[in-house]
Design a protein that fits this description.
The chain has 84 residues and is mainly β. It is built from no helices and 9 strands.
Amino acid sequence: MEAADTMILTVLSPERTLLEAGVSKVTLPGSKGSFMVLRNHAPVISSLTEGDLVYMSEGKEGRIHILAGFAEVNENRITVCAEV
């Protein structure tokens, strides 16, 4: 996966940075329903509910279970602040 094909995912908890990685897609547990973010997604801010944040990085799937939080998507950067 080339850098031009990736987005930067940063997952923060109140205690520490949980993840910072290049990803090809992310699925988030939005409070109005789960949604997927792909490259060049429109800017959005969403509240998150309990569920799994699922991401694909270098062909491998990763998961982080979150309790609540919010996400911002802007210019191929996804920043998630969450309770875990």
